[in-house]
Amino acid sequence: xxxxxxxxxxxxxxxxxLWLLVxxxxxxxxxxxxxxxxxxxxxxRFDRDLATLDTAQxxxxxxxxxxxxxxxxxxxxxxxxxxxxxxNYADTATGIxxxxxxxxxxxxxxxxxxxxxxxxxxxxxxxxxLTEGFKYVKYYFPHFHIPSIVYFISGLNQWSAITLDxxxxxxxxxxxxxxxxxFYNAVQIPQYVIRxxxxxxxxxxVFQAIFRDWYPVDMEDKNLLQLMLQRGKEQWFLAQVLPxxxxxxxxxxxxxxxxxxxxxEALIYNFFIAQNLLYETSPNxxxxxxxxxxxxxxxxxxxxxNIGTWLGYRILQTYVEKHPEADFHxxxxxTDAQKVLQDSxxxxx
Length: 349
Hints:
The chain is mainly α and about 350 residues long. It folds into 2 domains: about 45-215, no CATH class; about 215-345, no CATH class. The chain has 18 helices and 4 strands. It has helices at about 5-30, 45-50, 60-70, 70-80, 95-105, 105-120, 125-140, 185, 190-195, 200-215, 225-240, 245-250, 255-265, 265-275, 285, 305-320, 330, 335-345, and strands at about 45, 150, 160-165, 170. The chain has a 4-stranded mixed sheet with strand order 1-2-4-3. The radius of gyration is 24 Å and the shape is globular.
């Protein structure tokens, strides 16, 4: 073979490889470069500070905590825990005597403090993941104020992640002790929730809380398709700011449940069509499809709960693929669910 044909084949091979690279990258979508975005959130271990309170001198301890946690302390005592202290830190105050002191002195709570401390001798891993997510949020929202991160415990009251006035993110470490932690069953937390009591879900729960703070869920007089779009946008937001988080974690599914959805996408969509559910507004009929649950009534046992959220996300993904000109904020501003469905030309196979 002469040199011309060799060079020709080499050139064709190179172009083919470049075509493959471009094709693969365009299919995955471009991820913004955030490495130069500087984010350094303040981090606090409120759980440890609370655990060290002297129950014989609570007032003095709370006064010091108030200085360190001027926004969070009273929110925690009154809103999260319901002690009704209302800044009356006196040792003889009713909220102290009947609420905080018995809480801190209870053997189960002391054991919980110890367990959290053993599971989280430091919070480097979750803080690193949250910091990375903040970079992506900062990229899309340049004026985003980086909140402080406060780690706390609530006595297994299922406060996994909260926002406070956009200045603070709270993470309830006692809700991330692993699915084998025995006391989750003791306080009757459902198994499909216990499965997600793992540190892997911290970032998803935090950024879900942020999204719902910015885009509150509006359930009133909404049909299922509209609710699916709302929840689908939430999942799309999470996918953008947590690009390294697996879809199964973001959705709260097991890997098998997610695989089942992907293999049965047409079945899922046709189920909603056959049951005339897309435009149904009755809460009793539609809410179960956009909220967490063990499985979906009327579908095989392998199906996950909250399946309407997954389908809404898939419809929105299809819409985005068909409308590459739509930017991040335009997608989150979509409100006409019927138009999104039509313009997506969604037809699962």
